[in-house]
Amino acid sequence: MEQTVKRINDWAETVFIKQTVQGKAAHLCEEAAELEAALISDPHSDAAKEELADCLILLYNMAFRMGMSVSDVIEAINRKMDKNEKRKWAELNEKGYSSHIET
User: pLDDT for 7-63, tens place per residue?
Assistant: First the structure.
């Protein structure tokens, strides 16, 4: 995994030199919309897998730009999962997902 993330960051830092982390977040929103469209069409398609990869590439490069290593990302995920596992979750909404219930 670390080799793949290094490959992502080496490439992104060469190609997208001037893109800020905020710009990457805006780009991520566009890629997430493309992922949603691909999932609606066929969630098992190569197109959906590619769009998911685009989102992950952006996320890993954003983490790098924020000064995070792969282990920092995993640590942040585990901390967030600790919180998520303690939360109560609502039923699915009309868009097909559930949000945590504020307590």
Answer: 999 999 999 989 899 999 999 999 999 999 999 999 999 999 999 999 999 999 999
pTM here?
A: 0.86
CB within 8 Å of 86: residues ≥ 6 apart: none
Q: Which domains does the chain have, with CATH numbers?
A: 2-68 (1.10.287), 70-103 (no CATH)
| CA–CA dist 64, 24 (Å, integer) | 11
State both tokens at 59: 């996320």
Q: Are the beta carbons of 76 and 65 closer than 8 angstroms?
A: no
Q: Residue 13 and residue 42: Cα distance in Å, rounded?
A: 32
